[in-house]
Amino acid sequence: MLDLLWPVLLLAVLGSAMLRRLPVYQLFVEGAKSGLEVTLTVLPNLAAMLAALHLMEASGLAGQLCRMMEPLLRLLHLPGETAPLVAMRPFSGSASLAALERLLAQYGADSRIGLTASVLMGSSETIFYTLCVYMSGLADKRTGYAIPCSLAGMLAGFWACGLFFR
Hints:
Helix 2 (24-59) packs across helix 7 (127-136) and helix 5 (93-107) packs antiparallel against helix 6 (112-122). The protein contains 8 helices and no strands. It has helices at residues 5-19, 24-59, 61-75, 83-88, 93-107, 112-122, 127-136, 146-164. 16% of the residues are buried. It has one domain (42-164). The longest helix has 36 residues, at 24-59. It is mainly alpha-helical. 77% of the residues lie in helices and 0% in strands. The N and C termini lie far apart (43 Å).
């Protein structure tokens, strides 16, 4: 039954558009064109952010950042082994997923470190990646309170996770 959901939904949208006498194909082409324009404005920002992340990793700065984070992690009651995940999560989903995979392979999914890392991964967001995508499409690049509020929410979630898996 669930396999029929998408075809039925597509037919319902097409049928509704045809009943309203809308130029379905032309609207689809215009939407695809605007999607490509958004992609062209977003790609340079994403490329710059990903290049910076790779430079951080290659230069050893990411490792130093993880060592510097250990006092904060102790304050949040998080295992020090989760530092790479905590450091990369606001920037890159794929890098933090790789960090999670390494932790699960080394410590196991049912260990305190594995459980903590899984909750950290599932309850946080790639803040800077998301803002990069959203802000690159806007004329006004000011983020206002989005970054501090997002980081505060992420820290609160990390702290709650640390308390839960003590």
